[in-house]
Specification:
The complex is a heterodimer of chains A (314) and B (292).
Chain A lengths: L1 H14 L2 H33 L2 E2 L7 E2 L3 H9 L1 H34 L3 H12 L6 H11 L7 H8 L13 H14 L4 H12 L2 H9 L5 H12 L1 H17 L3 H6 L12 H11 L3 H26 L7
Antiparallel strand pairs in A: 1-2
Helix pairs in contact in A: 2-15, 4-8, 4-9, 4-12, 9-12, 12-15, 14-15
Chain B lengths: L1 H5 L12 H25 L3 H5 L13 H11 L5 H32 L5 H11 L8 H10 L11 H4 L2 H11 L4 H9 L4 H12 L1 H16 L3 H6 L8 H13 L3 H33 L6
Helix pairs in contact in B: 2-15, 4-15, 5-9, 5-12, 6-9, 9-12, 10-11, 12-15, 14-15
Classes of the chains: A mainly alpha (314), B mainly alpha (292).
Chain lengths: 314, 292
């Protein structure tokens, strides 16, 4: 065996000298690795480092140990009372909830013919690509507090309300609206990946399963569909979680203020912005960033433990 | 057995058993589509229809007035809208092309080369799939400031180039390219540059298209870089300008709603066209998207 390996290596060395080979691998990887380090690795490291300091942008950061974390987890009432519970609610409904929804839709789409499937999936995918400007404009007008706002106009017409509701400035509605919009725009590439995954499953597996005694569609999903497309399930899950956190700006955009009215739709992302760019307490904001990254990571771990293969990362 | 045939995945023909899926999917699709339909109609409404109460969804007498007004409104701010549009087109083109090159190079190396750190690098990139850029806005700002990139055109491009999803999808797709093909090219004396551009790139077209699409979506809709890193109005992008503009006109004026709808449409339509054109290639890429 080792002899064969050696002779293969010998042939390789003949074709391309080893040093040459390494050099070209290095150059191929360099641009990506450089940008990845500069804009992902270093920022994450810097966030970790800054979270241990007091930093107001003007003076050099002053080392404070875990002071920011202690403050955050014991003294920051807004964080404990509003931001954290809001974020957990939001993340669970939009992350795993949106994910479940996109799986069910993808599964149903796989059961119909190609042309209607293509059209419907395009329409479902659309909200995920319309962009920030579109989302803000359309939902701000639809939920507008004046009687010309579409939803208010409809409710008035149907005599369900007497006077228009201030949807976007009322604490009791804002969070629900934010979650609704985030779900609306959550059918992104994870959703497309799941459609592709379901379509790729070998048809014979199903036939075999029916011979083995599977009785209904539900069993089919549990025993054949999901196990056969675990990699796509995992990709979809990671995309859902990341998507949910990336949509955290919606509440501030709709209400037009940060903090949102009575902190009703305040999420970790808005809290970071509030401290970082409005109060210039960068060290504190960095600590919030670190918490956010840990939460995203935690959700992803969960997805990995559900769908990952055994020899997975870490 | 006949029941099973009717339940087939990806059916070629219509069967009664599919009806139940349509009953759920169609109303939901219409519902999801309503906001888009609203924007399209609103953009073409003349002033009196914008004021109509109760509001009506469909436009009766479509007009281009709102488009003309938006174009003119822009020039009163000093910097004409054409300038923002030009900036956005340049930024988007550069970002998409560069990203494709960078990601294809790295994807080729990570898929077809054998070296010590390979598995580690793949794991790091896989971990970075769950990276949320918004969380590190502050450190990014500090880095960009240190590099002297504030008010530099490149600031719209560089931070968007590190795209773990892009690399991941391209690498997965290059895994499908048979090793024998690359080996034979090597035996013919081809170097890596030749293999990458003439052998690998033509085969991974669908993955390239997908990366182009995803990059374009992010860069075209990107408001953040103009907002944080640029104070010079003449190098800000269209997305930023329109977001500020729609914020301004949205408050109070109903005529503004027509302009805001046009602005939204301008941001949305390029994405839509690109997606429709690339749709089948994207789906092809997605079948190799699984994380193992």
């Amino acid at each position: 065996m080792s002899k064969i390996n050696k002779s293969i290596a010998g042939v390789k060395a003949h074709i391309a000298p080893k040093s040459d080979y390494r050099l070209s691998t290095f150059w191929l990887l360099l641009p990506y690795a450089f940008l990845f380090t500069l804009f992902i690795l270093i920022p994450v490291g810097l966030a970790l480092a800054l979270s241990l300091t007091y930093f107001n942008v003007i003076e050099f950061p002053e080392y404070k140990g875990v002071f920011n974390y202690v403050m955050l987890l014991t003294q920051d009432e807004v964080f404990l009372k509003h931001v954290l519970p809001n974020t957990v609610n939001y993340a669970i409904i939009v992350g795993p909830g949106g994910y479940l929804l996109s799986f069910i839709l993808a599964w149903m789409l796989a059961q119909i013919q190609q042309t209607p499937r293509t059209i419907i999936s395009l329409i479902l995918y659309m909200p995920s690509m319309v962009g920030q400007v579109f989302i803000t404009v359309v939902w701000r007008t639809l939920f507008s507090g004046s009687e010309a706002g579409y939803i208010n106009a409809l409710l008035l017409q149907w005599n369900l309300i007497d006077k228009p509701i201030q949807f976007l400035t009322s604490p009791e509605y804002l969070m629900a609206i934010v979650i609704f919009i985030a779900l609306w725009s959550s059918m992104g590439i994870g959703f497309l990946a799941m459609i592709a995954g379901i379509l790729n499953i070998n048809q014979e597996l199903y036939e075999a399963a029916y011979i083995d005694g599977i009785k209904n569609r539900f069993q089919e999903i549990i025993y054949i569909t999901i196990p056969s497309m675990k990699p796509q399930m995992l990709f979809g899950a990671v995309m859902s979680i990341v998507g949910a956190f990336n949509s955290g700006w919606i509440g501030v955009a709709l209400s037009g203020t940060n903090p949102t009215p009575q902190y009703s739709a305040q999420l970790l992302i808005n809290h970071i912005e509030d401290y970082g760019f409005l109060r210039y307490e960068m060290g504190y904001a960095a600590a919030v960033s670190v918490i956010l990254l840990i939460i995203v990571w935690g959700f992803s771990r969960l997805a990995y433990s559900l769908f990952g293969e055994k020899e997975e990362v870490q | 057995m006949s029941k099973f045939q009717g339940n087939k995945i990806n059916p070629a023909k219509f069967h009664r058993s599919q009806l139940k899926f349509y009953v759920i999917l169609l109303p939901l699709t219409v519902f999801m589509f309503l906001p888009v339909l609203y924007i399209i109609n609103h953009a073409f409404k003349p002033l009196d229809e914008l004021f109509m109460f109760p509001p009506r969804l469909f436009v009766q007498r479509p007009t281009m007035d709102n488009f003309r007004m938006l174009w003119r409104a822009a020039s009163t701010t000093g910097v004409p809208m054409s300038r923002y549009l030009f900036n956005s087109v340049v930024v988007a083109t550069f970002t998409v092309v560069t990203n494709i090159l960078i990601v294809a190079m790295a994807g080729y190396a990570l898929s077809k080369k054998r070296f010590k750190l390979k598995q580690k690098l793949l794991n790091i990139n896989q971990l970075a799939l769950m990276f949320v850029p918004i969380a590190v806005t502050i450190p990014r700002y500090l880095i960009i400031e240190q590099l002297g990139l504030v008010n530099n055109f490149a600031v719209h491009i560089l931070p968007l180039l590190a795209m773990p999803v892009g690399l991941f999808l391209v690498k997965q797709f290059i895994d499908q390219v048979p090793d024998a093909l690359i080996e034979s090219a090597k035996i013919d004396g081809a170097n890596d540059l030749y293999i990458l551009t003439k052998v690998v790139m033509p085969i991974i077209g669908p993955a390239i298209a997908t990366v182009a699409l995803l990059t374009f979506q992010i860069v075209w809709n990107n408001v953040e870089t103009s907002n944080l890193f640029v104070t010079d109005e003449s190098i800000k992008t269209l997305a930023f300008y329109l977001s500020v503009f729609t914020d301004r006109v949205a408050e109070g004026s109903i005529a503004g709603a027509g302009l805001a709808a046009v602005a939204s449409l301008i941001m949305f339509v390029p994405n839509l066209i690109i997606f429709i054109v690339m749709q089948s290639r994207v789906m092809n890429t997605m079948s190799h998207s699984g994380i193992k």
